[in-house]
Amino acid sequence: MNKFTNLLLDAHSVKQGAKNHKNRYWLAASVAVIGLTAFVSAQAQNNDNPPAPTVFQAAGPSVNSIQSAVDAFRAALGGNNNGVTAPGGPIIAGGRREINWDGGNVANVATSLSANPVLDQFLVGRGARFTTPGTGFVQATPEGLAAPDVFNNPSYATIFRAFTQSRLFSAIGSNVTDSLFFQPGTTDVKAVTRGFGVVFTDIDHPDGSDDPAPRLGNRHSSTLVEYFDKDDDVLFSSFAPSAPGDGNFTFVGIVFADARIARVRITLGATPGVDDSRKRDVVMMDDFIYGEPVAIH
């Protein structure tokens, strides 16, 4: 299969039913792609019964396969890309933040390694902190990911591609990355956002992989994106659609009517370092796009 359709799922159209006294709602969306039917499972949960988010998903062999879904997600967030805020900078109403791991320069092909499981590189400027149960993070080109001092796997130079040139992003020593939000310009003002989306490369298996040594990650399921509120209750979760074939692209994003997402957990198919295979679906991340973080009061 070499073509995939883009899709926009309105979670309001999905049948909801009460599951327990905490008012959980399960959503199931059937994702049709040419020559293949994939199924995306999602969960929305909140004690206050908020309106369900609008869900954006796409998967396919080229940048163009997901570009329209990414553009629609940006439009749903509204406003402009607010770029980088200086320390103590002004509070911005509306718009979004984007991180493409390239430092604003497509010619940036240097490998950036962090040996700290907490990455605050984007904390002040863009209001995002990243954590992992692993040992650190890497921002690198596919060739950089393959290097002996990173994942030491030559195949990574060819099985991954960047959506936004030239670098990708990954945790080291784990397949789990958490994104937490803060008011840009500060280091300690916790915040929420109304939407978050992420681009993946090389999600091969809709039914996931069997990682024999997961680090707080899923073992028998595909790449998973979970959204939590300020009380750490699950607002929504969705498995990412697959795009079989080396270096293909997937996009997953949701937008609420108001800012309520305090944390996003991304659990990839396998911990990087091993060979990408039927049993272990190694996946990398590219662009993170999210609504302007709003301070929690």
Give an account of the 3D structure.
The protein is mainly beta and 297 residues long. The protein has one domain (6-79, 108-286). The protein is 9% helix and 35% strand. The chain has helices spanning 63-77, 123-126, 142-146, 156-159, and strands spanning 6-10, 24-33, 36-45, 54-60, 96-99, 112-114, 118-119, 128-131, 136-140, 168-172, 176-181, 191-192, 195-201, 224-228, 234-239, 249-255, 263-267, 284-291, 294-295. The strands form four sheets. An eight-stranded antiparallel β-sheet has the order 2-3-15-14-17-11-8-7. A six-stranded antiparallel β-sheet has the order 1-4-16-13-18-5, covered by helices on one side. It has a three-stranded antiparallel β-sheet with strand order 6-9-10. Strand 14 (224-228) and strand 15 (234-239) form a beta hairpin. It is globular, with a radius of gyration of 18 Å. Residues 1-47 and 211-221 have low confidence and may be disordered.
Secondary structure layout:
Blueprint: E1 6-10, E2 24-33, E3 36-45, E4 54-60, H1 63-77, E5 96-99, E6 112-114, E7 118-119, H2 123-126, E8 128-131, E9 136-140, H3 142-146, H4 156-159, E10 168-172, E11 176-181, E12 191-192, E13 195-201, E14 224-228, E15 234-239, E16 249-255, E17 263-267, E18 284-291, E19 294-295
Antiparallel strand pairs: 1-4, 2-3, 3-15, 4-16, 5-18, 6-9, 7-8, 8-11, 9-10, 11-17, 12-19, 13-16, 13-18, 14-15, 14-17
